[in-house]
Amino acid sequence: MVVTKEIQLETDPTKDTQGVCIIDITSQVAKNVEESGINSGIATLFVVGSTAGITTIEYEPNLVSDFKNMWDRVIPQNIPYAHNKTWGDENGHSHVRASILGASLTIPFANKRLTLGTWQQIVFVDFDNRPRSRKLTIQLLGE
C-alpha cells in the first residue's frame, strides 16, 4: 500500500542570526505513520522547494547552534553567488546549502513506529532569506 501525506510549515530564517530555521518535525511524521493504516514499511520525506532540506539530528540547543554555525563556515551567506545575478533575490547561498543537505530522507518503520534512535529527531531546515510557507511530502510504502 502507498499513502501520500503532506505537512505544511511556516518558516522565517530571518529571525535567526545564522539565517537558518530548524524545525523538529518528528512528532508530525510519527503521527502520519501511526494514522496511515500501514503497519511496517518506509517513510520517504521530500522537501518541495530548492532552498530547504531535511535530515536527522539530536535536537538539543547546543547541537542545533553548532549545526547552524557550521553552515556559515562551509557555505557563507555574504560572499558573491552567481545565482544572485539571475533573480536578484540574494539567496544563492540558500540553494547551495539546500543542495548539499538534500531534499529527501527515508526512514523505516515497524509496528507503526519510526525506527529512530533515542536521540535522533527529524528536522526540516530552511536556508532562505525570507519567511516562507513550506510543503513537505510524506510518502509511506508498506503493508
Structural class: alpha+beta
| Molecular shape | elongated
Task: Let me know the number of strands.
Answer: 8
Q: Report the portion of residues in β strands.
A: 35-45%
| Separation, N- and C-terminal Cα atoms | 6 Å
The H/E string reads: EEHEEHHHEEEE
Please state the average pLDDT score: 96
The value of Rg in angstroms is 16 Å
Q: Which regions have little confidence, pLDDT < 50, spanning 5+ residues? A: none
Spatial strand arrangement across the major sheet: 1-8-3-5-6
Topology:
Elements lengths: L1 E10 L9 E4 L1 H9 L6 E8 L3 E6 L3 H14 L8 H5 L4 H10 L2 E7 L2 E2 L6 E6 L5 E11 L1
Antiparallel strand pairs: 1-8, 2-7, 3-5, 3-8, 4-7, 5-6
In short:
This protein has 4 helices and 8 strands, in the order E-E-H-E-E-H-H-H-E-E-E-E. The protein has helices at residues 26-34, 61-74, 83-87, 92-101, and strands at residues 2-11, 21-24, 41-48, 52-57, 104-110, 113-114, 121-126, 132-142.
Relevant terms:
143 residues, alpha+beta, 4 helices
What does this structure look like?
It is built from four helices and eight strands; from the N terminus they run ββαββαααββββ. The model has no long low-confidence stretch (mean pLDDT 96). It starts with a strand and ends with a strand. The strands form two sheets. Strands 1-8-3-5-6 form a five-stranded antiparallel β-sheet, with helices on one face. A three-stranded antiparallel β-sheet has the order 2-7-4, with helices on both faces. The chain is an alpha+beta fold.
